[in-house]
Design goal:
Elements: H1 10-17, E1 24-27, H2 34-41, E2 45-50, H3 53-66, E3 72-76, H4 82-85, E4 94-100, H5 105-109, H6 135-141, H7 144-155, H8 160-173, H9 179-190, H10 201-212, H11 214-227, E5 229-239, H12 242-257, E6 261-263, H13 273-278, E7 286-292
Parallel strand pairs: 1-2, 1-4, 2-3, 4-5
Antiparallel strand pairs: 5-7, 6-7
Helix pairs in contact: 7-8, 7-10, 8-9, 11-12
The protein binds S-adenosylmethionine.
């Protein structure tokens, strides 16, 4: 299997990383290896991690094919513990660090992972299969108030209460264990009134963020990334929804006020229309970049 993921805002990410030949760059979300490959193509040395073992396999396969001579290393690790994760590379300073957050198309396309409301599969949603709790577990054990909070806070879902109630009602009949069951339930709550987004979109987002503790991981990782940068090193973060972008924005703002970094993007950079047309997944992407002082 090869990666089907198209790297988002590739040109902009490489430009903001300011990749220099021979320098070391760290990709904290290596995914299918698209950005990693471009860093190597620009002459950088590449060190990458992903918490998903399948992503690590795909990235290694891609980089082995294009850079069999080496110059790169990819390992399975979680960026929540970035400083520990880099120890294996025997490096503690990088000229640039990239976070390309969220899911890859490879993860979405694998029905067994349960990330997509368009494919039927078990409601798993764990990026790393050693995590203990799946999305189906959350739907089984959370009470109505907890489900409401989850959909409201992590999905910014207007229909949070109705969805929570619908889950409580449905699971009295039969456990909710598949992505199709949950997508159908969202459709029934929405009763045919559909906007641009599928009615299950935000609920799936909320469950995935909760299962993988994505926001706390990001909050923990960004300051570590700054510490791991050389002076004048660049941090580039691509986010895909407002909750992530707000964390990046506030972290960058605070560190800029403290004089630790210099903002390179006062406002987030968004993809060009031509990219969004070619790859609709890019439509919500926002890139922020900063330079360590
Ligand atoms: C959008 S994809 C990255 C795609 C990659 N830039 C490419 O060009 O192929 C995001 C990746 O981040 C990984 N990821 C998410 N949270 C992570 C974490 N806490 N630690 C490490 N990897 C994480 C996911 O498993 C996924 O493979």
């Amino acid at each position: 299997m090869t990666s089907v993921h198209q790297p988002v805002m590739l040109k902009q990410a490489i430009e903001y990383l300011n990749v220099q030949p021979g320098e070391a760059y760290f990709d904290a979300t290596v995914g299918g290896g698209g950005h990693a490959q471009a860093i190597l193509a620009a002459g950088g040395r590449l060190y990458g991690i992903d918490r998903d073992p399948q992503a690590v396999r795909l990235a290694r396969e891609r980089l082995t094919a294009s850079y069999p001579q080496g110059g790169w290393q990819v390992n399975q690790a979680d960026f929540v513990d970035l400083k520990t994760a880099v120890q294996v590379f025997k490096l503690n300073q990088f000229s640039g660090i990239l976070f390309d957050l969220g899911l890859s198309s490879d993860q979405l396309a694998d029905r067994q992972r349960g990330f997509s409301f368009q494919l039927d599969g078990p409601l798993d949603m764990r990026m790393d299969p050693v995590l203990n709790v799946t999305a189906a577990d959350l739907l089984k054990v959370l009470n109505k108030g907890e489900l409401y909070e989850l959909f409201k806070k992590l999905g910014e879902e207007k229909r949070a209460l109705r969805l929570a109630q619908a889950i409580i009602d449905a699971r009295q009949q039969t456990p909710i264990t598949t992505s199709k069951q949950l997508a159908d339930l969202a459709m029934s709550v929405c009763a045919g009134r559909r906007g641009k987004l599928h009615p299950a979109t935000k609920m799936f987002q909320a469950l995935r963020i909760a299962v993988n503790d994505e926001l706390n991981n990001l909050k923990a990782a960004l300051p570590q990334a700054i510490d791991l940068l050389k002076a004048k090193g660049r941090l580039v973060v691509i986010s895909f929804h407002g909750l992530e972008d707000r964390i990046v924005k506030h972290c960058f703002k605070d560190l800029a006020v403290e004089g630790v970094i210099r903002l390179l993007t006062k406002k987030p950079i968004q993809p060009e229309l031509v990219e969004v047309k070619a790859n609709p997944r890019a439509r919500s992407a926002k890139l922020r970049a900063a330079e360590k002082v």
